[in-house]
Write a structure and sequence with these properties.
Number of strands: 15
Distance between the termini: 25 Å
Number of helices: 4
Order of helices and strands: EEHEEEEEEHHEEHEEEEE
Helix content: 10-25%
Strand content: 35-45%
Structural class: mainly beta
Length: 296
């Protein structure tokens, strides 16, 4: 099972080539007047960039709390029929005594119907309970980590970026030592965990069970990631297309998602919604079930 941790919905990395960056630091130690000291960073190649991604994921996982501004757009098309849903939200995650707490607040826009609805989604790790407020207030117990983030626009990225996948990426070094990664990763290099995390986010947006649609063909994923000079993830985005066979004709699914992280070294406070005792108890739901989705 994947740990939803801090990782959205969609995470990825991007690298390839070999670059060495230098930054001029005015008046560095031992520098005389008119001279500059330089910081030399190690060269970037598929192996070192893959390591940088893994290290950045680990640093984010160790953060006590983090806030993210997220967007996920999913378009389903079958013949002339199309349906598009966009989720814009702010997600706050916090860990206390090894328990995860998460609050998602945002809007769900069903474009074909012209309807926008506000919602909140709160997960209490101590009780293992989800409290949802969207039209109605209800609560339930999730069965899996994937269900904890179902329907809120998060894509659970992998903890590591394989070196073989990194070879398909391009990247550059920022002046502060940070790294920007960008590129297309072939589907066969994504790995089952990564592919499933993409599809889980898309399926749950529409209140669908992933296994209900059968096999699928996933195209390459376009990924962009930025890591700052301290080694923290600052933003990422991902897009991909999947073809889902159906007895009534193939369905094309186009997904675009992005997230921007707050500074993990700045304090973040998670405040639970008020009146949780008023939420109606619901039956335990299946992962990705219709009731878990804000779009349902």
């Amino acid at each position: 099972m994947r740990n939803p941790g801090w990782r959205f919905t969609i995470m990825a990395l991007i690298l390839s080539g070999c670059l060495c960056g230098c930054v001029a630091v005015p008046g560095g130690s031992g520098a005389s007047s008119g001279e500059t000291a330089t910081t030399t960073y190690p060269p970037l190649n598929s192996q070192s960039a893959s390591q940088a991604y893994g290290d950045a994921q680990a640093k984010m996982a160790e953060a006590g709390a983090v806030k993210m501004e997220c967007t996920l757009s999913v378009l389903l098309a079958s013949g002339e029929d199309q349906r598009e849903i966009t989720i814009d939200n702010t997600v706050t995650m916090s860990r206390e005594e090894d328990k995860l707490y998460m609050l998602s607040e945002g809007t769900v826009n069903t474009h074909d119907q012209g309807v926008t609805v506000e919602y909140t989604h709160y997960y209490d790790g101590a009780q293992n309970r989800i409290y949802r407020n969207m039209v109605e207030k209800y609560c339930y117990t999730p069965n899996t980590p994937a269900q904890i983030i179902a329907g809120i626009g998060l894509v659970d990225g992998p903890e590591e970026l394989p070196v073989e996948a990194a070879k398909y990426m391009t990247f550059d070094r920022r002046l502060d030592g940070g790294i920007r990664m960008d590129g297309w990763i072939p589907a066969e290099l994504l790995g089952e965990e990564w592919k499933n995390s993409f599809l889980d986010a898309a399926y749950s947006t529409y209140g669908l069970a992933g296994d209900a649609l059968g096999a699928y063909v996933l195209g390459p994923a376009h990924l962009e990631v930025e890591i700052d000079g301290r080694g923290y993830l600052t933003s990422f985005s991902a897009s991909y297309t999947a073809t889902i066979p159906s007895s009534q004709g193939d369905v094309t699914m186009e997904v675009e998602g992005s997230a921007t992280y707050s500074d993990p070294e700045e304090p973040v406070t998670l405040i639970p919604p008020e009146g949780l005792e008023e939420y109606q108890d619901a039956e335990t739901l299946n992962p990705g079930g219709a009731e878990t989705s804000p779009a349902a």
